[in-house]
Amino acid sequence: MKKDELLKHIARTAYNVGFGAKKHFATYDIVQKAPGLISFFSLGFGIFGLVFVLNEFLVKLLSASFVLLGIVGLYISFYDKKKDEYEKIGIELTKLFNKLGKLYSNVKDADENDLVQYEQELSNIEVQYYENCKSDQILFSDWYAHYKFFWQHQIDWINEQKEFTFLRDKIPLSFSLVAIIILIVLILNSNIPSKACGLVLPWFQ
């Protein structure tokens, strides 16, 4: 394998390993912090309901919010027993990511004749990566992992090979689709065009 090809291979592997580490940390963070946030919002909604005189729609909205928060709490509880495992895997993958960073620097300074040992080192790291990963991740961990990887992590050396773009790489596709759908709904149900189209939803009337 030539040096340029090996550097690209290392960068691709580093992206997978680094993003995998952040995804495991994202699952851990969500499971660790979400119950506290749910309790906070539940308390806030409860106080809001006691202080203000609510119409029928707002009462229903608060009731639906409590039910939704309860479902979310139940879903998160399924991961609670395994949260420490996600943190441990995230730490191990971060160690592999750092090894790949050192390997990348070594390969850049190496002669073509010395690449065989680095290829073997890369192969060993890939084996460890596949052995450590968990495929079962909590909902929205992918969105959070994008933030943690692209906006908190030092990935300039990976970007030398991958050349990340904002919309294609740094923003999750599913997040973009959800944002577009919400924007379309808001536009269709705004006061001026919605009445013309006959698409006004009850809470916009």
Structural notes for this entry:
The structure is a single chain. The chain has nine helices and no strands. With 205 residues, the protein is mainly alpha-helical. It has one domain (3-171). Helix 1 packs antiparallel against helix 3 and helix 1 (3-51) runs parallel beside helix 4. The radius of gyration is 23 Å and the shape is elongated. Mean pLDDT is 83; it is low at 192-205.
Number of domains: 1
Beta percentage is under 5%
Number of helices: 9
Mean pLDDT across every amino acid position:
83
The secondary-structure class comes to mainly alpha
What order do the helices and strands follow?
HHHHHHHHH
Report Rg.
23 Å
- List low-confidence stretches: 192-205
Based on Cα principal axes, name the global outline: elongated
For the termini, the CA-CA separation is: 65 Å
* Largest pleated sheet: none
Summarize the model shown.
By secondary structure, this protein is mostly helical. It contains nine helices and no strands.
